[in-house]
């Protein structure tokens, strides 16, 4: 039985089941201080859009009667939790859908309490418009400013400042003008693109759907008209094609497809794409959907991509265009919103989920905490629940990303506690971290350090003369990979084969050099850099004597390997990625180092709490968990023969 409580000024429906299918979608969120009327406003929109079932309305009427409300409380349409209904506030994020003839909408109704800031961040993360409600009686409060700041931090392009409860201030124009002036003064500190101010009464429906006759001084649009006409797609990156692979579909030997959602940009059949991190290229053979094949796919579409070539692609890889590459780094400059009940532990490691890729991450530096009430920067040793700060992260494997302001999908991530498996933070990537020494690094200028007052002495016997005598060319074979991946095993067997072929070799091993030449170096990033610099110089000297120089070094940083490459002529440096699954390497653990690192006895161990940057375009990839050492040596010898380094 329907309750007979008054519902003041119910407007005529704005849509009906026979309306045409809306042409586009707008995701928006509501925010503001506690009891500003967010849920009531959404309830009004749902009611007037005829998006409420009869039994839902009856349940709301019963709940209103049980609370003794003098009217049917439309806020109860979104306040689904029992605690919310009892207290008349919003605690969780409530998502609702409705449609008008012009557009479809997804609403995220977020909490106003300060302790639920993380919920607001969650609800606003995919929104293109934010409605900041302000109580006309109270004006712009601290929490209103907080939510406006968070909205701009999340790069929401459109803001609507809805000055609500105008009926309680007699619809006075001066009250509205004062609030507009206060918010405009505050917004000068924000990166605000588009702000619209609307006076309204969500309870009575003034300026929500229809123009209010009680505010003739306001000549702007109603809220619904603005929602229907505001430009959508401002946050979508339609240029940079990014396709994180979510799943490999292999129903039979005749079909191999890669399922996922186009994060940004578009792709067409026949286009060349690059697989990251391997760097392998192919062309799109087909784009498959549930409804069949199509010639093009755009951002937001879930598709299955097949490639013309049978190459290694797996979950966590990303397909991009060869001339439109994302950033790559294992050091990230991020803005972090802490969502965990337990504070951030700067000494702990977390799982970092970025698109479909998951890697280990460490906090290398906490720059500052942001006071979201004043927007001042504060020194901090940690981040507590709901606090936001600027943080430098280091990941054990490099990520392929775009800055958040350019691509919200590939610029965001979450941190996961490895012990509880709970999400503890959400982050936005500003850019890759940069260090001062990068700006003055001589290698980046193509120069090499040299002592003063010295001159390079050229020998009387050239490398070409030595190569003629040896019967083969000189080259550096740089084997890089995780500890325990099999670099030394493959290198030693390769050296034996080359010796039997009559080749002159020079073997450089990481552990051996740290017993002497590099014995003064540790394992901090700067020491690792210097270690590889010295190795590169020694390898060049050996190469100049027409040797085949075998280098077996973890060499985790791509920039250091690139420096070693820069010392040699084109075509004489072979970067050989000795690849092996990290779990296989841990089980092998020939020196017992992984066990010690996992137990915390070794700090800065590559693959555990220190990064390894996989080669993007190595000359050769050898996989020791898939092939025997003899097979891999044959692969390397074949590559050397094809390059003309050694003969048959």
Put the structure in a nutshell.
This protein has 648 residues and is of the alpha/beta class. The chain has 16 helices and 28 strands.
Topology:
Layout: E1 25-32, H1 38-48, H2 54-67, H3 82-87, E2 94-99, E3 104-109, H4 117-124, E4 129-135, H5 142-153, E5 158-164, H6 173-187, E6 194-199, H7 223-229, E7 242-244, E8 247-252, E9 255-261, E10 266-268, E11 272-276, E12 280-289, E13 292-294, E14 296-298, E15 302-307, E16 318-320, E17 327-338, E18 349-354, E19 357-371, E20 376-378, E21 388-401, E22 412-416, E23 423-432, H8 436-440, H9 463-470, E24 475-480, H10 487-500, E25 505-509, H11 510-513, H12 525-544, E26 548-552, H13 558-566, E27 573-579, H14 582-588, H15 593-598, E28 620-623, H16 629-642
Parallel strand pairs: 1-3, 1-4, 4-5, 5-6, 24-26, 24-27, 25-26, 27-28
Antiparallel strand pairs: 2-3, 7-16, 8-9, 9-15, 10-14, 11-12, 11-16, 12-13, 12-15, 17-21, 17-23, 18-19, 18-22, 19-20, 19-21, 22-23
Helix pairs in contact: 10-16, 12-13
Describe this structure in words.
- The protein has 648 residues and is α/β, with parallel strands linked by helices.
- It folds into four domains: 205 residues, P-loop containing nucleotide triphosphate hydrolases (Rossmann fold, 3-Layer(aba) Sandwich), CATH 3.40.50.300; 79 residues, Beta Barrel (Elongation Factor Tu (Ef-tu), domain 3), CATH 2.40.30.10; 106 residues, Translation factors (Elongation Factor Tu (Ef-tu), domain 3, Beta Barrel), CATH 2.40.30; 179 residues, Rossmann fold.
- 25% of the residues lie in helices and 28% in strands.
- It has 16 helices and 28 strands.
- Strands 7, 8, 9, 11, 12, 13, 15 and 16 form an eight-stranded antiparallel sheet that branches. A six-stranded mixed sheet has the order 2-3-1-4-5-6, sandwiched between helices.
- A hairpin with a 2-residue loop joins strand 18 and strand 19.
- Helix 10 packs across helix 16 and helix 12 packs parallel to helix 13.
- The radius of gyration is 31 Å and the shape is elongated.
- It starts with 24 loop residues before the first strand and ends in a 6-residue tail after the last helix.
- The N terminus is likely disordered.
């Amino acid at each position: 039985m329907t309750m007979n409580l008054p519902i003041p000024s119910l407007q005529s429906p704005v849509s009906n089941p026979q309306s045409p299918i809306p042409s586009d979608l707008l995701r928006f969120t509501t925010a503001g201080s506690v009891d500003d009327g967010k849920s009531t406003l959404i309830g009004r929109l749902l009611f007037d859009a005829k998006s409420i079932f009869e039994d839902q309305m009856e349940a709301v009427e019963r709940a209103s009667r049980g609370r003794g409300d003098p009217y049917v409380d439309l806020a109860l349409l979104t306040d689904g939790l029992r605690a919310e209904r009892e207290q008349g506030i919003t605690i969780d994020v409530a998502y609702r859908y409705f449609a008008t003839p012009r557009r479809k909408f997804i609403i995220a109704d977020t909490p106003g309490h300060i302790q639920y800031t993380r919920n607001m961040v969650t609800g606003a993360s995919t929104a293109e418009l934010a409605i900041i409600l302000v109580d006309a009686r109270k004006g712009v409060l601290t929490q209103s400013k907080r939510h406006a700041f968070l909205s701009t931090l999340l790069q929401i392009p459109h803001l609507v400042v809805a000055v609500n409860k105008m009926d309680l201030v007699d619809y006075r124009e001066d009250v509205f003008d004062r609030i507009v002036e206060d918010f405009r003064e505050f917004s000068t500190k924000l990166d605000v693109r588009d702000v619209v101010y609307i006076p309204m009464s969500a309870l009575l429906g003034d300026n929500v759907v229809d123009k209010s006759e009680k505010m003739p001084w306001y000549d702007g649009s109603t809220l619904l008209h603005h929602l229907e006409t505001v430009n959508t797609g401002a946050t979508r990156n339609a240029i940079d094609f990014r396709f994180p692979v979510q799943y490999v579909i292999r129903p039979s030997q005749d079909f191999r497809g890669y399922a996922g959602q186009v994060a940004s940009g578009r792709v067409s059949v026949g286009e060349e794409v690059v697989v990251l991190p391997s760097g392998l290229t192919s062309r799109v053979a087909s784009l498959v959907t549930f409804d069949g094949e199509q010639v093009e796919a755009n951002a937001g579409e879930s598709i299955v991509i097949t490639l013309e070539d049978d190459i290694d692609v797996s979950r966590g890889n990303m397909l991009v265009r060869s001339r439109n590459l994302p950033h790559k780094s294992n050091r990230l400059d991020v803005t972090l919103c802490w969502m965990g009940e337990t504070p951030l532990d700067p000494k702990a490691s977390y799982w970092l989920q970025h698109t479909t890729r998951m890697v280990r991450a460490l906090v290398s530096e906490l720059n500052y905490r942001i006071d979201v009430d004043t927007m001042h920067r504060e020194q901090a040793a940690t981040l507590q629940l709901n606090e936001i700060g600027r943080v430098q992260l280091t990941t054990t494997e490099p990520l392929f990303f775009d800055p958040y302001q350019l691509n919200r999908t590939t610029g965001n991530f979450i941190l996961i506690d490895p012990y509880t498996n709970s999400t503890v933070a959400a982050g936005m990537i500003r850019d890759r971290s940069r260090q001062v020494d990068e700006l003055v690094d001589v290698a980046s200028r193509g120069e090499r350090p040299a002592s003063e007052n010295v001159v390079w002495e050229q020998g009387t016997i050239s490398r070409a003369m030595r190569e003629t005598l040896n019967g083969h060319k000189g080259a550096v074979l740089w084997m890089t990979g995780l500890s325990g991946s099999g670099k030394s095993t493959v290198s030693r067997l390769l050296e034996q084969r080359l010796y039997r072929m009559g080749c002159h070799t020079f073997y450089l091993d990481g552990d051996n050099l740290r017993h002497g030449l590099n014995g003064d170096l540790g394992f901090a990033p700067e020491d690792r850099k210097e270690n590889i610099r010295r190795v590169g110089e020694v390898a060049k000297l050996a190469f100049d004597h027409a040797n085949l120089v075998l280098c077996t070094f973890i060499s985790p940083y791509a920039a250091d390997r690139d420096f070693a490459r820069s010392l040699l002529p084109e075509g004489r440096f072979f970067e050989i990625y000795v690849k092996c699954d990290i779990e296989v390497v841990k089980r092998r653990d020939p020196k017992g180092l992984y066990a010690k690192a996992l137990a915390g006895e070794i700090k800065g161990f590559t693959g555990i709490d220190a990064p390894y940057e996989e080669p993007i375009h190595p000359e050769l990839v050898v996989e020791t968990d898939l092939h025997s050492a003899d097979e891999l040596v044959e692969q390397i010898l074949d590559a050397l023969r094809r390059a003309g380094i050694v003969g048959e």
